[in-house]
Amino acid sequence: MSSNSPDTTRPINAGLVEAAIRRHVDHRRNILIPEATVRWPTGGKRGEYRADFIMISSSDYATELEVKISLGDWRKDLSKPKWVGMPGWITRFVYVVPEQLGIPEWVPAHAGIWHVKPARVDHFSTQPDGYEIVIARAPHVLGREKIPSAVVSTWYRNLYYRFWEQRIDAQRCIPRHIREGVV
Q: What's the superkingdom here (predicted)?
């Protein structure tokens, strides 16, 4: 392998895929909500699942981004309740996977596929130092319903509380005499 070719033997984990998503999404035009809880009514019952990411366009259309890092994990996703009762305001659905997984025949035809592959992020380097997304298959439009503002408000509130919980947990790791300035 030459020094300029990407290292495709290194396994890509979920954290690297998520970093590639954050780098790929245009944050001036889209809002990216991680770990969004999606709820929908189905025949008098309520369904619920957690989406890895919801990308909301400036026009208020939602695209669900689902991260999968292995074929087994990917195949298991097809048994989740979202395929029974995905809400109408999810207008597109995309799997974000390592390039090595390809496009299996059992993936729903309407689902888009973004491949994550090693790439040079720092243009002064000759080695791959990051990951990029290549659109392998564009998603089909599932509907034209805009996302309700109440749903987005709930996600923002959940992000707010998650931020403070993580900050408090991180502060607990700092010794008390340093955290509080006690001598």
A: Bacteria
pLDDT digits (tens, 9 = 90+) for 22-43: 989 998 999 999 999 888 776 6
Rounded Cα gap, residues 103 and 101, in angstroms: 7
**Helix, coil or strand: residue 76:** helix
- DSSP secondary structure string, 94-106? EEEEEGGG---TT
> Using an 8 Å Cβ cutoff, are 104 and 71 in contact?
yes
The string over 79-90, giving b where at least 16 C-beta atoms fall within 10 Å of a residue's C-beta and e elsewhere, is: eeebeebbbebb
User: Is the CB of residue 158 less than 8 Å from the CB of residue 37?
Assistant: yes
Model's pTM, two decimal places?
Answer: 0.79
